[in-house]
From TrEMBL:
The keyword Amino-acid biosynthesis does not apply. This is Amino acid transporter transmembrane domain-containing protein. Signal peptide: none annotated. It comes from Fabrea salina. Keywords: Membrane, Transmembrane, Transmembrane helix. It comes from the Eukaryota. The chain crosses the membrane at residues 29-48, 60-79, 99-120, 132-157, 189-211, 223-241, 247-266, 287-308. The keyword Transmembrane applies. PANTHER family: TRANSMEMBRANE PROTEIN 104-RELATED.
């Protein structure tokens, strides 16, 4: 938004090219940050019932924009032309630990939608059919659609230094046609503004789910918690603006939530419930649980190190 939508009479700027902290571009970023946070906080306080139309529209908009990204990447591959020739050439090999360190947490972050399904499906009618259908469709979109998009877009950007937020690669998109037709400008704006739109509409759902989870453990008013959960993201966003790297760091939490906490819970449950289960086997041993914890902890430390070195 900062790159494409001016604030009143002020010009747009590219914060990714900003070398310093206290600059005019950074001040503009903070203004946009407060605007976006205000909108997301409002949607969070509204609750899911009062924003059904917004969420339905945003769902179809996401699919449309992802299709645009997929089709334009495929066209670039078939025409053997770069998606964005203005990007600098990249001499990094296709397989590198730094790329893996960025990709794995992003994949975990993208597949973390399971944590909000309970909060979303409880507002649905005919839960016996709609909740199952929503889970299947969500899984299909995430694993099949986004997986295909990652492979195709990655191939279209191969050999170029793509920005950490890959949608910025569509800046100046022309489809190899000069002068640029109007539809290529529309494609550019659709794709570049997509992350901001996606955060605006998906952020409130995550905040509502998180506040409900906290309320189940800590007795507190729901509206108060819905406001509190936005404090940390606001503070972090004040200092860090790169959404691609921010999503990668957020994905690091999956190492603990999925791969470390589950074996720990399993071992605690085995000690509290002494009787054996018919489902126990070699996979139920504490040795395996501890092996998973140690291995994942090592990968987590290594992954964090590589992410920090890219800052």
């Amino acid at each position: 938004m900062l790159n494409n939508i001016p604030l009143g009479t002020y010009e747009t700027c590219n914060i990714y090219e900003d070398q310093f902290f206290y600059t005019e571009c950074r001040y503009k970023y903070w203004v946009w940050l407060l605007v976006v946070m205000a909108i997301m906080a409002t949607l969070t306080f509204m609750g899911l019932k009062n924003q059904k139309f917004i969420q339905k529209f945003s769902t179809f908009a996401r699919i449309f924009i992802l299709l645009v990204m997929l089709i334009t990447s495929l066209v670039a591959l078939f025409m053997e032309e770069p998606l964005n020739p203005s990007l600098p050439k990249d001499g990094v090999p296709e397989l590198s630990f730094q790329n893996i360190a960025m990709g794995v947490p992003l994949l975990k972050f993208a597949t973390g939608f399971q944590s909000i399904l309970a909060s979303v499906t409880k507002e649905m009618k005919n839960k016996t059919t709609t909740s199952y259908l929503s889970i299947v469709l969500t899984s299909a979109v995430i694993f099949v659609f986004c997986g295909s998009l990652g492979v195709v877009t990655g191939s279209a950007l191969e050999g170029y230094q793509a920005p950490s937020l890959s949608t910025l690669a569509w800046s100046g998109y022309s489809a190899g046609i000069l002068p640029r037709p109007l539809w290529t400008v529309l494609v550019e704006y659709f794709v570049i503004l997509f992350p901001a739109f996606n955060i605006l509409t998906s952020g409130p759902i995550t905040a509502i789910a998180l506040s409900e989870n906290i309320a189940s453990m800590v007795p507190c008013k729901q509206k108060f918690l819905r406001g509190v959960v936005w404090v940390l993201p606001l503070v972090l966003s004040f200092f860090f603006y790169d959404m691609g790297k921010a999503a990668a760091f957020a994905g690091l939490t999956a190492y603990y939530v999925v791969f470390i906490s589950m074996p720990l819970i399993h071992m605690v449950a085995r000690r509290q419930v002494t009787q054996k289960s018919p489902y126990e086997g070699w996979h139920s041993s504490e040795v395996l649980a501890w092996s998973i914890i140690v291995f994942v902890s090592f990968v987590f430390i290594l992954n964090t190190y590589y992410l920090v070195t890219t800052l």
